[in-house]
């Protein structure tokens, strides 16, 4: 069939060659346009961006830094809302002469706080193409900035627990801001799930935290010895709560999935404790056979885990009020994987075992539900705040940095990007993480028992072991490797409507010397494994997004941290305007209006 609908989906574009061009590059017959840049107006009264004279007050009204997850909500056939995560800040690219947070002036630290979080902006189609632009005139009732200081409600079973209480919030139910929001997802009821990842880097004073708090701080990567102020952004110089020697529980209030309603500007963001506290990469939903909602989540750290949450209650279409309660009760699981090939056949080289597949079975191991803990020595609230330690206790499978998830809209199979793990030794290689010194990462495919997202058992296979196809340790589902593009460090993933998997990367420069990219690959039929590069991003950037609109005519990508590795005085990127680098969101479309990928 034209465009490859049906059992053998395939792609219709010619792959972009790996390159080091300081620009977004797209295939022949495609075009692209910057939709919104760091500093562009979000609030109606936002001042014009002034690079040399930035203030926290201005940044709170302007588009934030380092765009990661992108989602799009159609308002009508001409307009829509873009949700964008602002994961973190590169102060050395934002402020001329910046050295570190201890030397920074306080206004720069305020800009940093305000440049984190997320943005909701109204965008409109540029007539007859997949180009979109920011709406800057007239009423924009939905436009909103969420920052590292926006008040949020803590909900679910851990809300109010002693581990979440602080001097500023003795009830343990309200926190200011969200930090390091990496990937995310949307819900069937139209909200955004935005996920706090490397929140550990914002705290100081761990060396003087109470002794009983230190093991848990360390398990989440928060330093508890040495000079914790050195090289830190020093948010504590503006808000003392970031100093753990004085406010040791503040760190327990970050690391959650945050729910935000883009269509309700008055909605107070909710930190959903029921989904656990980890370095949440993303959160991707799927409806179970019986109408409940499953959420797939990765904890992006070497040797950390894959999680699933399943709601207790059913999703009710159209009942906004009911659906707002769904993520506060249910069951939290962690994944345990078992390979089906003999251990001695998995030697860490990436060589396939004798059955020709890295595959096996798995179980979702219960950690807790909203009423009961299934982990000895942990209460429900302790499972939800010290989720990593609870998962350690049940012997979950240690993975190669689980990043984003996405289910195929065609088959229901669920895909996870495992970005890399150079610390895995040959002895630690197992069938689901089969390569030692895993520099390039791999892709995991999970088939739930009975194709039910609520199942507690599943089958799995590793369809792609990433890298240069000429490298023997790579595998592209058995496809002819002379016909595939190189890929390193898969990160964010999405699907097109035909069931092709789209993978953006964060690691090409360090491994291949060329720039990060967006790739597409069929995962069913004769072309399974035929991976092609669709776009590349500017110097220093990782490729985030990607989001393909419902009509399949636009893909949004977010080149994050363009210019990384340089400084204001010594830039390595001048994208997109030819002066200083600005993290931005870009739309890409086919010039003859074909669907993305064809
Ligand atoms: Fe923020 Fe795991 O990438
Ligand atoms: Ca096998
Ligand atoms: Ca990521
Ligand atoms: Ca995704």
From TrEMBL:
Superkingdom, natural source: Bacteria
PROSITE patterns per record: TAT
Higher taxonomy: Bacteria, Bacillati, Actinomycetota, Actinomycetes, Streptosporangiales
Database matches in Pfam families: PhoX
Designated name of the protein: Phosphatase
InterPro entries per record: PhoX, TAT_signal
Parts forming coiled coils: none
């Amino acid at each position: 069939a034209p465009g490859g609908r049906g059992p053998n989906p395939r792609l219709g574009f010619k792959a972009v060659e790996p390159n080091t061009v300081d620009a977004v590059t797209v295939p022949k017959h495609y075009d692209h346009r910057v939709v919104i840049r760091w500093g562009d107006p979000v609030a109606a009264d936002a001042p014009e961006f002034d690079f040399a004279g930035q203030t926290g007050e201005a940044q709170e009204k302007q588009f934030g830094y380092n765009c990661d997850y992108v989602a799009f909500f159609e308002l009508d056939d001409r307009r829509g809302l873009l949700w964008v995560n602002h994961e973190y800040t590169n102060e050395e690219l934002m402020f001329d002469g910046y050295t570190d947070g201890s030397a920074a002036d306080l206004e720069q630290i305020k800009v940093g706080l305000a440049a984190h979080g997320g943005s909701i902006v109204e965008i409109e189609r540029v007539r007859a193409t997949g180009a979109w632009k920011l709406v800057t005139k007239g009423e924009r009732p939905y436009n909103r900035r969420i920052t590292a200081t926006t008040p949020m409600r803590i909900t679910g079973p851990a809300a109010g627990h002693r581990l979440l209480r602080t001097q500023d919030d003795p009830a343990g139910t309200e926190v200011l801001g969200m930090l390091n929001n990496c990937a995310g997802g949307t819900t069937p009821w139209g909200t955004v799930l935005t996920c706090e990842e490397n929140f550990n880097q914002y705290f100081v004073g761990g060396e003087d935290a109470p002794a009983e708090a230190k093991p848990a701080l360390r398990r989440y990567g928060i330093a508890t010895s040495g000079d914790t102020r050195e090289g830190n952004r020093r948010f504590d110089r503006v808000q003392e709560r970031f100093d753990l020697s004085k406010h040791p529980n503040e760190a327990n209030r970050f690391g959650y999935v945050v729910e935000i309603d883009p269509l309700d500007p008055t909605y107070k963001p909710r930190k959903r404790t029921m989904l656990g506290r980890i370095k949440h990469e993303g959160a991707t939903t799927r409806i179970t056979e019986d109408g409940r909602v499953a959420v797939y989540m990765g904890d992006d750290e070497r040797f950390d885990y894959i999680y699933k949450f399943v709601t207790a209650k059913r999703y009710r279409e159209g009942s906004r009020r009911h659906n707002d309660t769904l993520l506060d009760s249910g069951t939290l699981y962690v994944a345990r994987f078992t390979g089906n090939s003999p251990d001695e056949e998995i030697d860490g080289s990436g060589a396939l075992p004798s059955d020709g597949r890295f595959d096996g079975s798995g179980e979702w191991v219960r950690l807790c539900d909203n009423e009961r803990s299934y982990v000895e020595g942990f209460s429900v609230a302790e499972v939800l705040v010290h989720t990593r330690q609870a998962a350690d206790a049940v012997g979950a499978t240690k993975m190669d940095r689980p990043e984003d998830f996405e289910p195929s809209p065609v088959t229901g199979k669920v895909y996870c990007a495992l970005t890399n793990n150079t610390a895995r030794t040959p002895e630690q290689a197992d069938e689901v993480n089969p390569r030692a010194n895993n520099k390039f990462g791999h892709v995991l495919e999970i088939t739930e028992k009975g194709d039910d997202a609520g199942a507690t058992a599943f089958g799995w296979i590793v369809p792609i072991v990433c890298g240069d196809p000429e490298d023997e340790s790579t595998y592209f589902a058995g496809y002819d490797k002379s016909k595939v593009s190189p890929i390193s460090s898969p990160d964010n993933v999405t699907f097109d409507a035909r069931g092709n998997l789209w993978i953006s990367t964060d690691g090409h420069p360090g491994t291949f010397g060329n720039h990060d990219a967006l790739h597409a690959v069929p995962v069913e039929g004769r072309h399974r494994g035929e991976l092609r590069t669709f776009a590349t991003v500017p110097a220093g950037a990782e490729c985030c997004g990607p989001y393909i609109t419902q009509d399949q005519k636009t893909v949004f990508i977010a080149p994050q941290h363009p210019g990384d590795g340089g400084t204001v005085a010594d830039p390595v990127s001048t994208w997109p305007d030819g002066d200083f680098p600005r993290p931005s969101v870009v739309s890409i479309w086919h010039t003859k209006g074909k669907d993305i990928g064809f």
